[in-house]
Amino acid sequence: MKKVLITGSLGQIGSELAERLRKDLGVDNVIASDIRKPENNKTVEGGIFETLDVTDYEAYLAIAKKYEVDTIVHLAALLSATAEARPAFAWGLNMGGLMNALEVAREMDALFFAPSSIAAFGPNSPADNTPQDTIMRPTTMYGVTKVAGELLEDYYHTKYGVDTRSVRFPGLISYKVEPGGGTTDYAVDIYYEALKNKSYKSFIDKGTYMDMMYMDDAIDAIVDLLNADPERLEHRNSFNITAMSFDPEEIAASIKKFIPDFEMGYEVDPVRQGIANSWPNSIDASCAKKEWDFNPKFDLDKMTEEMLKQLSKKFADEGIDTKVSF
Ligand code: SER
After folding, report:
1. Catalytic: 142?
2. What is the pLDDT of residue 324?
3. Fewer CB in a 10 Å sphere around the end CB: N or C, the chain?
C-alpha cells in the first residue's frame, strides 16, 4: 500500500481514514474522493481531492490511472436506514459502485478494501457470538448488498486474483464526522445530546443489543488488514470484527458515570428497530484475531470518556453552548 484512492471519503469512515493515511503515507499518496466537494472541509483541503461518482466507471478508472494508485479503499455506499427508504437506488449505488471499484482494481492490479457489515447477517443467523461462517440471509436491502458484495469480492479474488480484503463492521462511533442513515447511529447521537441537553430519546429500544466499535479501532483494523500477510488470511470477504456489544440502557449507564443527571428516554422508530432486530446481538471476531491480530483497544467506558471529552472540545471550538463540559 503506497498510493491509495479512497471513495466516499467525506463520510464517517472516509474522513478519518484519509487523515490517517495522509499521515502514514504522505499527503501526495492519498487521493480522497467523494461525489460532492464542499468548501471549508478538512478532507477536501488537507490534500489531493477529486470529485467522483462511483457509478461512473470511466471516471473512476481515469482517476485511478491519473494517480497510478496501487490500493483502492471503496467506501461510497448508502447505510441501512437510508437504503431501506430507497431500496432500488441503494442496490444501484452499493452494487454498481462496488462492481466498478472491483473492475478498476482488476485493471490496475490494486490491493482492494471495501467494508461489509453486521447487517450481512439476518434473523436466522445465530444471534449470539455469531460465527464467522454461518447462515447469512439478511432481510434488509443494505444487508442484501453487503452479502452480495462479499461474494463479489471473493469472486474477483478467486477468478482474477484481485487482492480483496474486507471486514464486517459493527456500529462505528466517532466524534469528527457524524454518520448518516444508519441504525446504530443512536450510539453516536446520544453523546451529542448528553452534552447539549443532558438527555436523549433513543430510537432503538432498551434490550436491543448490537455490536459497536470506536472509530480509532476501526481505522486501525482497515490499515492492519491491508498490511496483513496474505499467506495468513484463510478468510477474506469478510472478517467479523467487534469491540463491544451493548443495548441503549448500558450506553446510558456508561454516560451516567460521567454525567450523573443524564436522563434516558425512548421514542422507538419501528423501521430502524426492525432492522436492529434482524441483526446479531454480538458477533465472534476470533478469526480476525487469529489471522491478522485484530485487537481493539476501546471498551464502552473508555470510549464514552473519549467521546465526551472530544465532543466537548469540538463544541467549545465551534462556540456551541453545552450543559456539561469536560
Ligand atoms: N452502522 C451501519 C448501519 O447502522 C451498520 O453497518 O447501517
Report:
1. yes
2. 81
3. C
The segment(s) of the chain belonging to CATH 3.90.25 are: 172-212+244-281+298-317
If you measure from the C-alpha of residue 237 to the centroid of ligand 1, how many angstroms do you get, rounded to a whole number?
A: 17
Contacts (Cβ under 8 Å, ≥6 apart) of 30: 3, 4, 6, 18, 21, 22, 47, 48
Res. 8: pLDDT tops 90: yes
At CA 224, angle to CA 223 and CA 230, rounded to 5? 115
Which residues line the pocket of ligand 1, CB cutoff 6 A?
79-80, 117-119, 142, 169, 171, 182-184
Q: Beta-carbon neighbour count of residue 305 at 10 Å? A: 16
How confident is the model at residue 53, as a pLDDT?
98
User: 184 C-alpha vs ligand 1 centroid, how far in Å?
Assistant: 6
The tens digit of pLDDT for each residue in 222-246 reads 999 999 999 999 998 999 999 999 9
CA distance 265 to 272: 16
Among residues 110, 122, 123, which one has the least CA distance to residue 60?
A: 110
Q: Which CATH class is domain 4-170+213-240?
A: alpha beta
pLDDT tens column, 268-291: 999 999 999 999 999 999 999 999
Bridge partner residues of 264 (DSSP): 200
pLDDT tens for residues 181-206? 899 999 999 999 999 999 999 999 99
- Numbered ranges of CATH 3.40.50.720 in the chain: 4-170+213-240
Architecture of domain 172-212+244-281+298-317: Alpha-Beta Complex (3.90)
Residue 81 alpha carbon to ligand 1 centre in Å: 8
Distance from C-alpha of 19 to C-alpha of 15, rounded to nearest angstrom: 6
Taking the model in full, what pTM does it have? 0.96
For 290-320, write each residue's pLDDT tens digit.
999 999 999 999 999 999 999 999 999 989 8
Q: Within its chain, how far is the Cα of 286 from the centroid?
A: 19
Whether residue 326 is predicted with pLDDT greater than 80 in this model: the reply is: no
Among 208, 188, 196, 199, CA closest to 270: 208
